[in-house]
């Protein structure tokens, strides 16, 4: 198969397997989504979803978040790992949202990526899932599958994102991002992968 043929097959198979794509991180609004995505760095969505109810019960707005100390935030989010750095980032970005953005999460990549603890991937998730802006957040799992499916030969997530945006239609980016994540967890893991049993790898790999 050529790359475009592989891409069409991947889209069709993912749509067949995952016609519904719920957002994995529990949240109520753009702010709580931003915090949840920040916490998900090097942490599973399942663990984040266990931690955030405790955090958001105390502070689910920037105003409330700056009312508690970074140390108090750190104690709550400790199970997510990197708790000291993440807690300080959450506290600092909450101040910035209040000082520069009227307490609202900005709707631009530039403003989001200027916030502490927010990289391009986090900004892409927020833009896609909170605001519906076409984006293709690439984490290590999507990077792995894109290489496994020969949709890219890149060693960097930045180049992989560019390659996936070129091969898939813009109006499918947001859905595909989630569909690939769900597929990777269920059928195409990093370890213990059985290519012959994988609905995609068994056809195109």
From TrEMBL:
Protein's gene: nth
Cofactor: [4Fe-4S] cluster
Keyword Metal-binding: yes
Cofactor binding note of this UniProt entry: Binds 1 [4Fe-4S] cluster.
Pfam families: HHH, HhH-GPD
Function: DNA repair enzyme that has both DNA N-glycosylase activity and AP-lyase activity. The DNA N-glycosylase activity releases various damaged pyrimidines from DNA by cleaving the N-glycosidic bond, leaving an AP (apurinic/apyrimidinic) site. The AP-lyase activity cleaves the phosphodiester bond 3' to the AP site by a beta-elimination, leaving a 3'-terminal unsaturated sugar and a product with a terminal 5'-phosphate.
Protein name (database record): Endonuclease III
EC numbers, comma separated: 4.2.99.18
Keywords, alphabetical: 4Fe-4S, DNA damage, DNA repair, DNA-binding, Endonuclease, Glycosidase, Hydrolase, Iron, Iron-sulfur, Lyase, Metal-binding, Nuclease
NCBIfam families per UniProt: nth
Molecular function in Gene Ontology: 4 iron, 4 sulfur cluster binding; class I DNA-(apurinic or apyrimidinic site) endonuclease activity; DNA binding; DNA N-glycosylase activity; metal ion binding
Similarity section: Belongs to the Nth/MutY family.
Reaction(s) catalysed (UniProt annotation): 2'-deoxyribonucleotide-(2'-deoxyribose 5'-phosphate)-2'-deoxyribonucleotide-DNA = a 3'-end 2'-deoxyribonucleotide-(2,3-dehydro-2,3-deoxyribose 5'-phosphate)-DNA + a 5'-end 5'-phospho-2'-deoxyribonucleoside-DNA + H(+)
Swiss-Prot/TrEMBL GO biological process terms: base-excision repair, AP site formation
Species whose genome carries this gene: Sulfidibacter corallicola
Highest taxon of the lineage: Bacteria
Residue intervals of the HhH-GPD domain: 39-186
Lineage of source species: Bacteria, Pseudomonadati, Acidobacteriota, Holophagae, Acanthopleuribacterales
Keyword Iron-sulfur: yes
HAMAP family (alphabetical): Nth (MF_00942)
């Amino acid at each position: 198969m050529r790359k475009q043929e592989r891409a069409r097959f991947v889209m069709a198979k993912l749509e067949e397997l995952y016609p519904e794509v719920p957002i994995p991180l529990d949240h109520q609004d753009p702010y709580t989504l931003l915090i949840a995505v920040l916490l998900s760095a090097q942490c599973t969505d399942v663990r984040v979803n266990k931690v955030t109810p405790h955090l958001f019960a105390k502070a689910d707005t920037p105003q409330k978040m700056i009312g508690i100390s970074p140390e108090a935030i750190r104690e709550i989010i400790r199970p997510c790992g990197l708790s000291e750095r993440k807690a300080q980032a959450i506290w600092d970005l909450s101040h910035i949202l209040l000082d520069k953005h009227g307490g609202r999460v900005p709707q631009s990549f530039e403003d989001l990526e200027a916030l502490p603890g927010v990289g391009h991937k986090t900004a892409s998730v927020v833009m896609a899932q909170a605001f519906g802006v076409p984006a293709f957040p690439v984490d290590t799992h999507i990077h792995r599958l894109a290489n496994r499916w020969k949709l890219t030969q890149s060693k960097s997530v930045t180049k992989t994102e560019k390659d996936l945006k070129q091969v898939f239609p813009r109006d499918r980016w947001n859905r595909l991002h989630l569909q690939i994540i769900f597929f990777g967890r269920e059928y195409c893991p990093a370890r213990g992968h059985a290519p012959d049993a994988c609905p995609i790898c068994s056809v195109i790999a």
